[in-house]
């Protein structure tokens, strides 16, 4: 990240200082889930854990460990490929799977039994939109707010009921009032 003193964190002469801003954004500004070969993990883990306290010293906040990860990956010359379809989180952000959600005719269709219906892993027993490309994760990291008729409406992960997507036990699902669409006048 350009606001960090990377020379002090990574060391003068570190490969961490070499990426251009564009290359850094595309290959090091990443977040979990991370998929690496075990040998790469072994290299990266030591560097990452060494960088976390240094980053936290200048940025004592949530995500310090993620910035340290990015710098450690650059230091170890392990550029990442970003899978830009795996999750949805922030509707105004690039690199997410919103185009697939936006293409749906009806976003509130119960899941269909999958070919893995006999699987002991419940997550594989049902599929939403089995014939469509879909993001894999809903990342509830953003808080969304909008004003409606002088009152603020918000969506935040801690407001979501447990079992929201658990249709097998009849909990929540799309009948949840927390997923009701705000009126069309919202935000005007």
Keywords, separated by commas or semicolons:
188 residues; alpha+beta; two-stranded parallel ribbon; 5 helices; 27% helix; 10% strand; globular
Descriptive notes:
This protein has helices at residues 6-10, 21-27, 38-58, 64-75, 98-102, and strands at residues 87-88, 112-113, 126-127, 137-138, 144-148, 151-155. The chain has 188 residues and is of the alpha+beta class. A two-stranded parallel sheet has the order 1-4. Strands 2-3 form a two-stranded antiparallel sheet. A hairpin with a 2-residue loop joins strand 5 and strand 6 (151-155). The longest helix is centred in the first third of the chain and has 21 residues, at 38-58. It is globular.
Layout of helices and strands:
Blueprint: H1 6-10, H2 21-27, H3 38-58, H4 64-75, E1 87-88, H5 98-102, E2 112-113, E3 126-127, E4 137-138, E5 144-148, E6 151-155
Parallel strand pairs: 1-4
Antiparallel strand pairs: 2-3, 5-6
Helix pairs in contact: 3-4
């Amino acid at each position: 990240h350009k606001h960090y003193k990377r020379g002090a964190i990574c060391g003068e002469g570190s490969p961490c200082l070499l990426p251009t801003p564009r290359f850094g954004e595309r290959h090091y500004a990443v977040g979990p889930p991370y998929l690496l070969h075990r040998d790469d993990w072994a290299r990266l883990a030591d560097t990452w854990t060494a960088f976390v306290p240094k980053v936290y010293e200048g940025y004592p906040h949530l995500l310090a460990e993620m910035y340290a990860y990015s710098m450690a990956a650059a230091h170890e010359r392990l550029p990442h490929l970003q899978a830009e379809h795996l999750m949805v989180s922030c509707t105004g952000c690039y690199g997410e799977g919103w185009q697939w959600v936006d293409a749906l005719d009806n976003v509130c269709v119960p899941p269909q039994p999958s070919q893995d219906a006999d699987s002991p892993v419940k997550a594989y027993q049902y599929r939403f939109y089995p014939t469509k490309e879909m993001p894999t994760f809903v990342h509830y990291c953003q808080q969304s707010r909008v004003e409606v008729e002088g009152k603020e409406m918000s969506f935040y992960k801690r407001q979501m009921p447990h079992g929201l997507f658990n249709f097998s036990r009849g909990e929540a699902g799309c009948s949840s009032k927390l997923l009701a669409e705000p009126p069309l006048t919202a935000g005007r």
